[in-house]
Amino acid sequence: MKKKILILTQNFYPAIGSAGNRMKNIYQLLNKAEIDTHVLTIDPSYPNQKMYEDKKFWDEPELNIEKRKIKRVPIKNKKFSNKVLSRLFFYIEIMYRFIIHLFKQRKEGYDYILVSTPPIFIVLSAFIGVKLFKCKLILEVRDLWPDSLIGVRTFDNKWIIKLFRWLEKKMYNKADVIVINSDGFRDHITNKLTDKNKVLTYLPNGPRESEIIHTKKENDTFKVVYAGNLGLAQDIDRLKMIAHKLHDNNVKLNIIGYGMKVGEFTDFLTRNELYNVTIHKPSTRKDSLKLIADSDISVAFLNDEEVFSTVLPGKIIDYMTCRTPIIAGVKGTAAKLIEESKTGFAFETDDVQLMVNKVVELKGNRQQLVELMDNCTNTVERDFLWEENVKNLINIIK
């Protein structure tokens, strides 16, 4: 008999960003492995719901027509707010809507609920689902929460943080299986577990086989790319500095950006007349990968807070997928991967000038650039293919 699984997630196709792409891949590959997989999600809303009225985002016809396995619940708060309290109410509304839907579907039989966090409140709805369906819980951890909330320095109410930490420990211990997308999370989670033998499986973000770029031509114009969120965790001030310095060195910078800091970054470019920098509107994953592949070097930043040293940003794997070597202001897990795989160079987050110097050096050294490109392709094929890595989760479920 087929195993049956329900995925609870805020982020799902066609939502842009690594979270939506991740959950889409898990859904597709579990079904391909003959695990009857369903999804409960919301209408795409990040960075704003209006964006998804454009049909270009709905570029996978087989997912567009699937109504039985993919259920989307409407949310009244349709604009993704920057205010922390408003966003918390947004998460609580999702939890409430999910619980209502689970009660309506309580006669369904599931072997597992897989719930993706953050946000942490969706996990609470999964706890109720596990009771209703008498099934097991797979907790999928994409970020350490509330540590990441504290790390972006927008919320410091000690009593609420204390409550969140209690909930965090509760969800780790209630889960039957824990899936992590960064090996840097392992020690943090293990230290909060009562049962140290609980299954913790590493399932990183990565490309599908069809997405990997194996060759690309040398550009007439040397280009640098930054792709992804422009938010509180990404250290926007250092990205401003590198944009200015690259402009001074006559290097073109493309930004594929979205998030709460886009307006601030755009104003900075206008005030400083940085005409070598272009901001592209959020687009589909396919278009974004194409723009990354058309670049010679990629850049990545993370906030200097300690929690972000455990993170492996999805954009870094996307850069490797496109044979685009990485110059990064990161530390910890991400820095270790870049350095050990020889796919680029990692610097202390405040060493912006050294990062620019390395870009200029590589601009004049095509041979070294090609070696880094080859290492990018070899690394994603060896360690980050979805088709291979998802087998760990499939074996657990079966």
UniProtKB/TrEMBL annotation:
Keywords for the protein's UniProt record, in alphabetical order: Membrane, Transmembrane, Transmembrane helix
Glycosyl transferase family domain boundaries: 214-371
UniProt-listed InterPro entries: Glyco_trans_1, Glyco_trans_4-like_N, Glycosyltransferase_grp1
Stretches assigned to the Glycosyltransferase subfamily 4-like N-terminal domain: 20-206
Membrane-spanning parts: 109-133
Tree of life domain: Bacteria
Single GO MF descriptor: hexosyltransferase activity
Classification via Pfam families: Glyco_trans_4_4 (PF13579), Glycos_transf_1 (PF00534)
Signal peptide span: none
Xref: SUPFAM superfamilies: UDP-Glycosyltransferase/glycogen phosphorylase (SSF53756)
Record's keyword annotation contains Ligase: no
UniProt-recorded name of the protein: Glycosyltransferase WbuB
Provenance organism: Paraliobacillus quinghaiensis
